[in-house]
Specification:
mainly alpha, Rhomboid-like fold, two-stranded antiparallel sheet, 11 helices, globular
């Protein structure tokens, strides 16, 4: 852990300011700046970016862990890449953390929607009912209660946090510093990054399929983590393969 670089410092400051603002403005801030399912009336295109700066309002470890991770893994990468490449990478991973879970959610949403349409329900009416925080009890006869609950959850649940972008930074850090020793707080055993990161990704993928919560018992966007990590992997692999290491965008 060396000195904090300028861009990383500014990202942390912005995250903290967003956190303070969300504590002040409450649900209004979360409705406007967290990421909602695109068919939800609360969705706005800027949320693809702003959700990266929003964090759980009462679980303080959420923002603390994310900011510590951005500092630890982001600073050495900014020193290698420079300001503009680092920002491009950071926001690309954050967007990758949107695209993968959104594609999965749309798949499940379309599956449920098509079943309802085949049984005579109107799409506009379905969206109107969902956007009013309600549902038609007849839908359970078509979808079954489990699929209906899944539909309601993905439509009404918002996403927030820098974790997806952080996962991209972690992957890149591991590719540049494979022998760096990393530790989990709950497992204080040093593990080389080249082993630690694949294990962490395997956990995220398995949890994505099983729907597991985090070790702290809160809901976690596992597919968002995987999406950010995959974007980080692709970009870092391309840059390293094409010998971009010594070129800066400054």
């Amino acid at each position: 852990m060396g000195r904090i670089t300028d861009t990383v410092k500014h990202l942390i400051i912005i995250n903290v300011l967003f956190f303070i603002g969300s504590k002040i403005f409450g649900n209004t801030a979360f409705d406007l700046l967290s990421l909602w399912f695109p068919e939800n009336k609360n969705f706005h295109v800027w949320q693809i970016i702003t959700h990266m700066f929003m964090h759980h309002p009462t679980f303080y470890f959420h923002i603390i862990f994310n900011m510590l991770g951005i500092y630890m893994f982001g600073s050495p990468l900014e020193q290698i890449w420079g300001k503009w490449r680092f920002l491009f990478f950071y926001f690309s991973c954050g967007i990758g953390a949107v695209l993968l879970p959104m594609a999965i959610d749309y798949y499940h949403f379309s599956d449920s929607l098509n079943l309802l349409l085949e049984n005579g329900f109107d799409k506009a009416e379905i969206l109107n009912v969902l956007n009013n925080g309600q549902y038609d009890t007849r839908w359970a006869d078509v979808l079954g209660q489990d699929q209906l609950n899944q539909l309601l959850n993905l439509f009404n649940q918002n996403s927030l946090g820098a974790s997806g972008a952080l996962m991209g930074l972690l992957v890149a850090f591991g590719m540049y510093f494979p022998n760096a020793a990393l530790m989990l707080i709950f497992l204080p055993i040093p593990i080389k990054a080249k082993y630690f990161i694949p294990l962490l990704l395997a956990y995220e993928i398995i949890s994505g399929f099983t729907g597991g919560t985090s070790l702290f018992g809160i809901n976690v966007g596992h597919w968002a983590h995987v999406g950010g990590a995959l974007m980080g992997l692709v970009i870092t692999y391309y840059w390293k393969k094409n010998s971009f290491n010594n070129r800066r965008w400054d």
